[in-house]
Amino acid sequence: MEVFAEYLAHIDNPQHRARTEEVLAWVTTKFPNLMPKMAWNQPMFTDHDTFIIGFSVAKHHLAVAPEKAGINHFSDEIVQAGYDHTKQLVRIQWDSPVDFSLLEKLIEFNILEKADCSTFWRQ
Question: CA-CA distance, 50 to 64, in Å (whole number)?
Fold first, then answer.
């Protein structure tokens, strides 16, 4: 989590900071083989130098970026969880609970789907 300390320190809203820290800590604990890193000013996790999932803070939500393939695969579940999404990210409103089981599915999907991926992003 040290890699994210400066990022977290710059989140002005204490509730947003706490929620972001909770999610990042959960990923770190649940998936200890993933490498936490900062890139493009965002916290993210990689596996064998390929992108698995990233996060960013916005005024009204925590954005979760599992790449388009993950969003397409879990689109119905994302909507059922009460989140809206674009092609590239899922928005978890600050006043909504985090669906950690869905987050786990998104991460596991990318780990499995990108097991043989040799590039950072899907091609």
Answer: 16
- Go through the domains of the chain in sequence order and give each one's CATH number: 2-112 (3.90.1150.200)
Question: What tokens appear for 6 in the block?
Answer: 């400066």
Q: 116 with 58: CB under 8 angstroms?
A: no
Listing from the earlier edge strand, what are the strands of the sheet with 50-57? 35-39, 42-47, 50-57, 61-65, 90-93, 84-85
Give pLDDT tens digits for 86-116: 999 999 999 999 999 999 999 999 999 999 9
Three-state SS at 70: helix
Distance, CA of 55 to CA of 64 (rounded, Å): 5
Residue 123, pLDDT > 90, answer no
Q: Is 98 left (phi over 0), alpha (psi -120 to 50) or beta?
A: beta
- Would you state the pLDDT for residue 122? 87
Task: Name the residue type at position 72.
Answer: N
